């Protein structure tokens, strides 16, 4: 496979890497406000400095290039480009992203840029954030400004990162800002985000750019251990909850047919749904799908408990990742499989199942694996090296399954390791590391390529010859 046939790269996100939270004319974001509130963020860990990408982007992009990577996924900080409610553009913010793009261009790296990766301006959060029915209009206005500012210099635009995961963590689990716990709000926020996405696509189409536009979804392919009628119903409802309410509208232009009825049966007030929004959806589908692929979701028929999502933010291996949707389904477990220190099942084949599932439901839509990675407590050894063999083993297995799906006709066109260098991991802090390059967060933020960075570099070089 030639390198030009397939993009190999790695990914990051503005709040997790940039730092410089109040520099360069940047406004306050919802994450800035949240991490600075001791009641909401008792650990006190912030992304104020993060890995300082704002000042070190040249070094990080050079590392990508030296590692044979030809694509870089990053996100824009909305509040760096438009700091306040007067909608004035911040020239320093724009200059920063132009320099990042120029650095990519110089190194022959294709930029894959997300407009919204969890961080929104705090003034919008204060007005109700995603729950405000003005949110889609705000997002479309911001997106239009970004398309005008950067145009074709960005070959791949992504509207929003992980609507489902962000909505679940912010409005169900209550761990991400604004820390709410309400199933009704979860549904409303989910709807507003899907519509915001479609409105941004509409802005993009108006401008007739040569670039492509997509959405990034986190697919947890939903599976069961048994194949009975009850398990099949739980599986389908799991798929509705985890995937279809985002991927169907984004790719097919409409919500799944049975979704409204099931939600109403569950007591959700759907009065926020508007006919004009549904028309907009049908007219604004995407060019490519970005899939963040970490693990699958194993479900069984619902037994008990209120709708909720549980994750381990301590990394002691004590809490299993768990999802309950009352009367629909709940998590199941295959204890024969390994788990990471944060209670998440490690199941490499999920990337294959995911690509096959997309092909079956959506045909030939181009797919990027926009995130995939292995969380570890990496440490520097006595020789100054980071021997992250577990990560290499993880990548080898994932690549095996991804390339098998490609050989079998799945239209996967690129892969991004999460993350290019170590970043701030939401709520978890800095000890949960995914990077191909180690960052010394306790001292000088020095970058040290891990063993996996060298392995990936050589893998890409080798894949270029085949
Ligand atoms: C995805 C997010 C990323 C990243 C990654 C790892 O859901 O898009 O921003 O954080 O997951 O997750 P975490 O840092 O929570 O372990």
Note the main attributes of this structure:
8-stranded parallel beta barrel; 466 residues; 15 strands; TIM Barrel; 15 helices; single chain; alpha/beta; binds 6-O-phosphono-beta-D-galactopyranose; 5-stranded mixed sheet
In short:
With 466 residues, this protein is an alpha/beta fold. It is 40% helix and 15% strand.
CATH superfamily: Glycosidases
Order of helices and strands: EHHHEHHEHHEHHEEHHHEEEEEHEHEEEH
Rg is 21 Å
Major sheet characteristics: 8 strands, parallel, barrel
Description of the structure:
Helix content is 40%, strand content 15%. Helix 7 packs parallel to helix 9 (183-206), helix 8 packs antiparallel against helix 9 and helix 9 runs parallel beside helix 10. Strand 12, helix 14 and strand 13 form a beta-alpha-beta unit. It is globular and about 55 Å long. By secondary structure, it is an alpha/beta fold. It has a single domain (3-220, 238-287, 348-465), classed as Glycosidases (TIM Barrel), CATH 3.20.20. The protein is built from 15 helices and 15 strands. The chain has an 8-stranded parallel barrel, surrounded by 5 helices. A 5-stranded mixed beta sheet has the order 6-8-11-10-9. A two-stranded antiparallel ribbon has the order 14-15. The mean pLDDT is 96. It binds 6-O-phosphono-beta-D-galactopyranose.
């Amino acid at each position: 496979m030639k390198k030009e046939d397939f993009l190999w790269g790695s990914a990051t996100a503005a709040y997790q890497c940039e730092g410089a939270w109040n520099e360069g004319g940047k406004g306050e974001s919802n994450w800035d406000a949240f991490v600075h509130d001791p009641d909401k963020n008792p650990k006190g860990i912030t992304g104020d400095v993060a890995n300082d990408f704002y000042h070190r982007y040249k070094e990080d992009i050079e590392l990508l290039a030296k590692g044979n990577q030809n694509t870089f996924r990053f996100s824009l900080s909305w509040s760096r480009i438009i700091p306040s409610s007067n909608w004035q553009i911040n020239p320093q913010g724009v200059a920063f992203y132009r320099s990042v793009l120029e650095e990519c261009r110089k190194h022959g790296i294709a930029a894959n840029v997300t407009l919204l990766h969890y961080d929104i301006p705090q003034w919008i959060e204060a007005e109700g954030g995603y729950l405000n029915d003005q949110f889609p209009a705000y997002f479309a206005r911001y997106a239009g400004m970004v398309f005008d500012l950067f145009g074709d210099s960005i070959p791949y635009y992504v509207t929003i990162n992980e609507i489902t995961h962000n909505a679940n963590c912010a409005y169900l689990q209550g761990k991400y800002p604004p820390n709410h716990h309400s199933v009704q709000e979860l549904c409303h926020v989910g709807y507003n985000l899907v519509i915001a996405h479609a409105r941004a696509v509409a802005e993009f189409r108006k401008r007739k750019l040569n670039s492509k536009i997509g959405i990034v979804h986190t697919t947890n392919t939903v599976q069961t251990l048994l194949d009975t009628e009850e398990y099949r119903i739980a599986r389908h409802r799991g798929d509705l909850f985890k995937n279809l309410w985002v991927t169907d509208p984004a790719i097919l232009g409409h919500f799944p047919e049975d979704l409204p009825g099931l939600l109403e049966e569950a007591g959700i007030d759907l009065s926020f749904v508007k006919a004009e929004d549904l028309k907009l959806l049908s007219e604004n589908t995407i060019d490519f799908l970005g899939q963040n692929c970490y693990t699958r979701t194993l479900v069984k028929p619902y037994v008990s408990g209120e709708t909720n999502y549980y994750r381990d933010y301590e990394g002691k291996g004590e809490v299993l990742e768990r999802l309950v949707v009352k009367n629909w389904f709940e998590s199941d477990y295959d204890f024969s499989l390994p788990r990471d220190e944060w209670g998440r099942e490690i199941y490499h084949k999920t990337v294959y199942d995911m690509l096959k599932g997309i092909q079956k439901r959506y045909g030939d839509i181009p797919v990027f694996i926009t995130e995939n990675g292995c969380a570890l407590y990496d440490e520097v050894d006595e020789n100054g090296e980071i021997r992250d063999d577990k990560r290499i083993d993880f990548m080898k297995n994932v690549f095996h399954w991804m390339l098998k799906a490609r050989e079998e006709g799945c239209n996967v066109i690129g892969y991004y390791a999460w993350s290019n260098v170590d970043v701030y991991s939401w709520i978890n802090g800095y000890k949960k590391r995914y990077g191909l390059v180690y960052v010394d967060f306790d001292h000088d933020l020095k970058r040290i390529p891990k063993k996996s960075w060298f392995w990936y570099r050589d893998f890409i070089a080798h894949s270029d010859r085949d």
